[in-house]
Amino acid sequence: MRLGIDFGGTKIEGVVLDAKGSERARARVPTPRNDYDGCIGAIHRLALDLEGRVGERIERVGIGVPGSVDRETGRVSGGNATWLSGHDFRADLVAALDRPVAVANDANCFALCEATDGAGEGAAVVFGAILGSGVGGGIVVHGRLIEGMNAIAGEWGHVPLPTPRDDERPGPVCSCGIPGHVESWLSGRSLAADYARRIGQDPAEAPPAPEVIARAASGEVAAEETLRRFEDRLGRALAVVVNLLDPDVIVLGGGMSNVARLYETVPPRIATHVFGGRCRTRLARNRHGDSSGVRGAAWL
To answer: What ranges do the domains of the chain cover?
Structure first.
């Protein structure tokens, strides 16, 4: 049995999987925001609750968190759960749960889930690309999560948008404070902001991305143009992933992964920028949806 926990800014979700990946129990609790000790306690109680439901102690425990997890210290940095910063999160969880705990970035958990029994199952090299409120990614090779020396492998959201056009320089400011990063163009919020700029509206007052997508589907020219620009930028950004990693499959996650047309319109745009002009890498929609993160934590 495996216990996975997905730590988010608003909720903490847990799941118990058996050896075949079948779900045996699931539960969620609100995140005690800005309360580090409260979060440790909430995770402890959630783990005990899930163990009680399946009737046994679970030694394989994995937790996915927003941000980067230092391989040596277990400290979390760079995520939106800022109250975790400065604490030895992994050691405190080990002490609270009284067993070993694996901790990884939530995008890495997504990639591991989809590579294990999701859309990338059976593939040698899988790249998981999150297109949500932010842009993240993870790499799995032969079933093994690759985190890298600096624990930032797969962070394609924090590289500059490739071959920027004149109107894309210097680009919007990324969440990390640097303009022109992929995340500043390819998150759901970025799509909405790009649409707002297109119609002369303050990006802070932009309609949410799903509404922009719905407007494009209804034939609105400005929304359609915005979505086409998004597809072009996504093609350029993923082409860099292919040129560097050459994965068998790229699995999309996050809210923007639900836009069905991307799986038809983006592959040709990737191929345009791939060395040699041909791209066999498959672009796939995730299989487990919102459950990918917590299932991936269990597979850690």
So the answer is: 2-100, 122-286
| Same fold: 2-100 with 122-286 | yes
CA-CA-CA-CA torsion sign (264, 170, 162, 256): negative
Contacts of 167 (CB under 8 A, 6+ apart): none
pTM over 0.85: yes
Domain 2-100 classification at class level: alpha beta
Residue 67's pLDDT is 84
* Cα 134 → chain centroid: 8
Question: DSSP assignment of 108-129, as one string?
Answer: HHHHHHHHHHSTTTT-SEEEEE
Taking the alpha carbons at both ends of the chain, their separation in whole angstroms is 12
Neighbours of 225 (CB within 10 A): 14
Pick one of 3.40.50.970, 3.40.50.300, 3.10.20.30, 3.30.420.40 as the CATH number of 122-286.
3.30.420.40
Mark 80-118 as b/e (b = at least 16 C-beta within 10 Å): ebebbeebebbebbbebbeeebbbbbbbbbbbbbbbbbb
CB 194 within 8 A of CB 185: yes
Phi and psi of 57, rounded to 5°?
-75, 140
Distance CA 60, CA 99 (A): 8
- Residue 234's φ and ψ, nearest 5 degrees, are -65, -40
Q: Which of 47, 149, 179, 161 is nearest to 101 (CA)?
A: 47
Over residues 251-266, the pLDDT tens digits come to 999 999 999 999 999 9
Average pLDDT over residues 12-16: 97
Measured distance CA(167)–CA(184) in Å, rounded: 14
